[in-house]
């Protein structure tokens, strides 16, 4: 980590709910926080000193999830009363209700443009709604147990969902089909979300694990075993290179996805922590749990860690094949035999480094990712120096950077063609097998006749 690193600090806390906090979200302008609770209420908190908080009443059972619209003028909430409400953010707290599901609704999520809303329910379905018309559009059915969470990808083309059937599914919003499926034989995911550039997903597991998946190559990139109880929620930093998790072990943990290690354990709650969320600028973090407290943390380390992403880009080295866009496996895949585990038992605020240096940095940090590139990279001593080589000292820096970028892109194109050839070979093999089986079947029919 960078020298002069500052620890995250607890900046303030809010108390107003009468029961556990289930969900929290920052407004897009980072001036307000909305929280949901088992007490059936929503509360809207201002980050200004001594400002008044507003309580919104309407749901008849536990409020399970909430989220601000991207424009910040609406708040969507889900409840065990089987309804979804859209709230106008004023003192009166007016809301419109629609009966979304036939069982408790577990999550709500807006698309990035605010035009769509996706809901997940214990009726085993995922539903997508139009916000402009405030009407139901379509359902997604493939899960065989309660769906705990559903989220849009940043570009709105995909939806990721997790269920107690121990699967995580990726859905195409255009053809409304399941295009990818990740299965787990150990436990189910309580929460799932896309990283900021939409190439990876992270899952918070009931088996105490946090997993990072590459959805384009259908591969498990990292497996963190840093909690002693189930992980209830997670949130990516807006830059994509850090992740924060909330667990029933009473802790909030911060993970450095570039180096693949636990960097902080925050202990401020008494009891399980159910929700955690970064602000849109990444400067603040909120957490809530069974103690009915809403804690606001200032994430000092994030600003320093991400201060100069372009400089970090020069230090990275391409080693693996790029990941291809929009090629989805159609059958389930199990990944239990190839996971990269990081185990931490240290509960101090500054953790020792663990395994996992093979994290795909370009996937996890959108600012470090050249367009259409996605590679597994490792730190190497020779890549750390900022001094140009002898052959480049006489070349202007801008030209050298351009040439280096062109060479990297050519390398990516070459590797992409290689992957396409491999996929073509696999397709040809499958076609040949199908033809052979068809010929055998035809011969068998002829013999019988």
TrEMBL record:
Interacts with POC1A. Interacts with FAM161A. Interacts with CEP44; the interaction is direct and recruits POC1B to centriolar microtubules. Forms a microtubule-associated complex with POC5, CETN2 and FAM161A. Interacts with CCDC15. Belongs to the WD repeat POC1 family. GO terms for cellular component: centriole; spindle pole. Keywords: Cell projection, Coiled coil, Cytoplasm, Cytoskeleton, Phosphoprotein, Repeat, WD repeat. WD repeats lie at residues 14-55, 56-87, 98-139, 140-181, 192-223, 224-265, 266-297. The gene is Poc1b. SUPFAM superfamilies: WD40 repeat-like (SSF50978). It is found in: Cytoplasm, Cytoskeleton, Cilium basal body; Cytoplasm, Cytoskeleton, Microtubule organizing center, Centrosome, Centriole; Cytoplasm, Cytoskeleton, Spindle pole. One of its GO terms (biological process) is multicellular organismal-level homeostasis. This is POC1 centriolar protein homolog B. The keyword Transmembrane does not apply. Its main location: cytoplasm. SMART domains: WD40. Plays an important role in centriole assembly and/or stability and ciliogenesis. Involved in early steps of centriole duplication, as well as in the later steps of centriole length control. Acts in concert with POC1A to ensure centriole integrity and proper mitotic spindle formation. Required for primary cilia formation, ciliary length and also cell proliferation. Required for retinal integrity. Acts as a positive regulator of centriole elongation.
